[in-house]
Amino acid sequence: MVSLTYIGNQFTIYGGYLILLTGILGNGINILIFLSKNTYRTTPCTFYFLIASIHNIIYITLSIITRTMSIGYGIDPTRTSVIWCKIRQFLIVTVSLIALTCSCLATIDQFLVTSRSVNYRRCSNIKWAHQIVLIVIIIWCLHGIPVVLFRNISPITNTCVNTNAIYGIYTSIYILGLLCAIPVLIMLIFGYLTYRNIRYTRMLAEQRIDRQFTKMVFIQVILLVICIVPYGINNTYNLITSNVLKDANRLENENFALAILSFISYFYYAVC
Predict the structure, then answer these.
(1) Percent of the chain topping pLDDT 70
(2) CATH homologous superfamily of domain 4-271?
(3) What are the boundaries of each domain within the chain?
(4) Of 132, 235, 108, 134, whose CA–CA distance to 181 is shortest?
(5) Average pLDDT for residues 12-40, to the nearest whole number?
(6) Which stretch, 105-119, 131-145, 244-258, has highest mean pLDDT?
(7) Given this model, what pLDDT does residue 1 score?
(8) pLDDT range class, residue 228, cuts 50, 70, 90
(9) CB atoms within 10 A of CB 189
């Protein structure tokens, strides 16, 4: 009988190849489109999407290739190199947050640019967008410093693990909060406000200004709820049950669920 572990591993390997190809092509096309026209390069929303696409490629390439090499071919440098153990996790944490934040900023920008208020529309400014993205990158890089400090190779399991119990608790909280709950709330709230602006502003409705980017924002909200939220809930479950004694069958089921939900979470970064 084929075990769930084997199925999960095969799913990760071959599904990972598919997502990697899709993500590089999809985000690569986005980058080319956003850089192709001067009007796109001077629009805050497209600038946010551009930065998000760049970090999406970095995230899925780093995450999927290293995970596939480890599961499929037994090649895992994080077991032998402390530096790579720290750097890999730092990049994964930081890059994913930058990509999500830029998606949220694009949603907020669509609310501003479709507003009937002149003062709100003035806030949609490319110079401000450049400064905001720089601040975001600095903040999330600083946020990733504890990863570098507390990530290490366990002498018992010979795997790259967190060595600080308190930060381990925070990790599950940040996955549910910063990666799931907060982005979903921001995108839902400002997505709804954008929809209301377009609906109540007749000129925007007739001229279809920024409709394409507004649709992209709504698609991102849906994908975020479907792809990222289940992964966050699963991590919260693992935190709550971390002290529960589990038999081999339950551990196998949980590891299988983690493999599937991780795969689904990658899909968000591949198509957004």
Answers:
(1) 93
(2) Rhodopsin 7-helix transmembrane proteins (1.20.1070.10)
(3) 4-271
(4) 235
(5) 88
(6) 131-145
(7) 66
(8) confident
(9) 13
